Amino acid sequence: MLVVFFMVLAGLIFKFVGDLRSESIKKHAEQIEQEKRKAEFVATIEEQYKQMKKLYQEGEYDQVIKVIKVFSDHGKSDYKDLPEIKREIRRLHLEKKLDFIPKINLEAHMNFLKKEGIEKDTSTQVFIRTPRYGQYFYPSDFPIQLEGSALSLNGDFSDDIIWTSSINGNLGTGKSLSVRLSFGDHKIIATGTNGITTGTMGTLIHVVTEPEFMKKHRRN
Questions:
Q1: What's the average pLDDT block by block, 10 residues per block, for the chain (220 residues)?
Q2: First-to-last CA distance in the chain?
Q3: pTM score above 0.70
Q4: Which of 14, 38, 134, 198 is least surrounded by CB atoms within 10 angstroms?
Q5: Average pLDDT, the chain
Q6: Phi and psi (nearest 5°) for 82?
Q7: How many CB atoms lie within 10 A of CB 185?
Q8: Which residues of 162-180 are buried (b: 16+ CB within 10 A; e: fewer)?
Q9: Is the Cβ–Cβ distance between 190 and 163 less than 8 Å?
Q10: CA-to-CA distance for 153 and 130, rounded, in angstroms?
Q11: Cβ distance 77 to 71 under 8 Å?
């Protein structure tokens, strides 16, 4: 019985070693194939980059993202201005989505409240018209326009709106302001009051360095 046990154990060990060797060979082969594909990609990287830029200039942003993913898969996500292009496409997609958000008709809103007989409402409603949430700005976009409304059933108090930034602090007072902001993610707050109650609204915007390819494009 002991001999049979050792024979079975030896067979299992042999099979285990064989499986490990096969798995090692398989992984080695996959690694060689991956390195081969990467070498082929690197050999044609400039041509693929030019094709990607052509798609970008034609506005084929979905195709551009697919090409950038290929660059990333081969460890070349930082090739030339790819990070700036990817950020710019994200910004354009976000703006496109925000275009579908319906604009608030403030006059209709106020008329509705009065029609419904909500005359005792003393609340102050603050609305930020611009900038839109998530919007990106470059220094070339300065000055940035801030525009809002502060309304209540007692009247229009938009001229007294106080604007603040989470980075630059107090920005000024008024229905509309033109401002220059520091680089970073700004939480913009608009605060208005009708003398009885105070209302606020916030939005988030991003002020970033202008990509080199956009600077060159403007110079040309």
A1: 52 56 64 73 82 82 80 81 76 57 54 53 85 89 92 87 96 95 95 92 90 53
A2: 88
A3: no
A4: 14
A5: 76
A6: -60, -40
A7: 11
A8: bbbbeebeebeebbebebe
A9: yes
A10: 23
A11: yes
Q: Tokens 């991003």, residue? A: 206
Q: Which of 73, 4, 82, 1 is nearest to 42 (CA)?
A: 73
DSSP class per residue in 164-182: EETTTEEEEESSEEEE---
Is residue 86 within 8 Å of 80, Cβ to Cβ?
no
Nearest to 216 by CA among 80, 67, 76: 80
Which tokens sit at 70? 């290929």
Other CB atoms within a 10 A radius of the CB of residue 196 amount to 10
User: What's the CA angle centered on 100, arms 60 and 59, to 5 degrees?
Assistant: 10
Check residue 143 and report its DSSP letter. S
